[in-house]
Amino acid sequence: MRRGKYILPLKRIRLGLTDYRRRRKLILSGLPRFTVRFSNRYILIQVIEARLGGDHTISSFYSRELSTKYGWKASCINTPASYLSGLAAGFRSLKAGVDRAILDVKRFGRGFRYSAILKGAVDAGMDIPHGEDIFPNESRIRGEHIASYAALLEKTDPEAYRRRFSLYLAKGLDPKDLPKHFDEVYRAIIESFEKGV
User: Fold this and answer.
1) What are the angstrom distances between the C-alpha of 103 and each of 23, 36, 128, 172?
2) Average pLDDT of 182-196?
3) Would you state the pLDDT for residue 21?
4) Mean pLDDT for the chain?
5) Rounded to 10 degrees, what is the CA torsion of 143, 149, 151, 152?
6) How far apart are CA 86 and CA 123, in angstroms?
7) In angstroms, what CA-CA distances link 89 with 36, 61, 124, 156?
8) What is the set of domains in the chain, with CATH numbers?
9) Do 81 and 140 form a contact (C-beta atoms < 8 A)?
10) What is the mean pLDDT of residues 160-178?
11) Cα 125 to Cα 5: distance, rounded to the nearest angstrom
12) Are strands 33-38 and 102-104 parallel, antiparallel or unpaired?
C-alpha cells in the first residue's frame, strides 16, 4: 500500500507471520507441507497441500489428543510430547494417503522440539527430507532429563518442585516416572493405529 513516498510491506511480512520467498520454495517442491505450530499449551501439526483455490488440510493432529485419547498426563509441549505428537501425526498422515512431505516450521535446529516432532513422523513411516544428526537423543525423547531434574529439585527445594511440576502432580503423575509413562503412551499410540482407530 502506498502512503506518501513510502511503500509499506505486506502486513503478514511486517508482523513476521509469513516468509513469502520460503513459502514459494516449499510450494514449488510439489510436496505437501508438514507444518508445526506451537501455542503456549499445545502443538498443532498439519499436512497441508497448496491448491489454486487456497491451502487444503489433508490431516491434522492437536497435542491435546495425547491427554484425551492416550492418557498423557504431562505437559503437551515438552520434548516427549513433541515426539509422541509427531508419531501420531505421522500415522494419521499415512492413513490419509500422504507418505511424503516437506517440513514447514519457523525455526529449526539440533535438539529443538521441532526435531523431536520430525523424528516421530519419520519413525511412523513418513518420508520427510532431513539429516540424521538433527534428532535429539533417545533419553531426551523419553524425558529422562525432566525426570532427573525433578528428582534433584525435590531434594534441594521441595516447594519449587511442587510449583514447577504442579500440572504433573495434579494429574497423579510423579515427574520422576515420566520415561515409564512415555513408554506406556507410546505403546498406546502404536496399538491404536495398528487397530486402525
Assistant:
1) 11, 8, 7, 35
2) 93
3) 84
4) 92
5) 160
6) 9
7) 10, 5, 8, 38
8) 14-194 (3.30.420.100)
9) no
10) 95
11) 53
12) parallel
